[in-house]
Design a protein that fits this description.
alpha+beta
Amino acid sequence: MAKVEIYTSPFCGFCYRAKGLLEDKGVEFNEIDITFHPSKRGEMLDRANGQRTVPQIFVDNTHVGGCDELYALESRGELDGLLG
């Protein structure tokens, strides 16, 4: 199974949608809350090439993007293969 990391903040509807899709697929992920761990915001910006919005999702250290990109992978039938 792939290593999945997701940068989030509370009350973010897109974060809940992305996490929900991963949970529905039975995927374990490491959630990094940038609100309660503000030092992680800079880390997210570096890893996501300056993307400031949450969620930012990484699979095996590869930047997938946000919620829309995650659902786009799912709709194209590519997400399961990526998650391994």
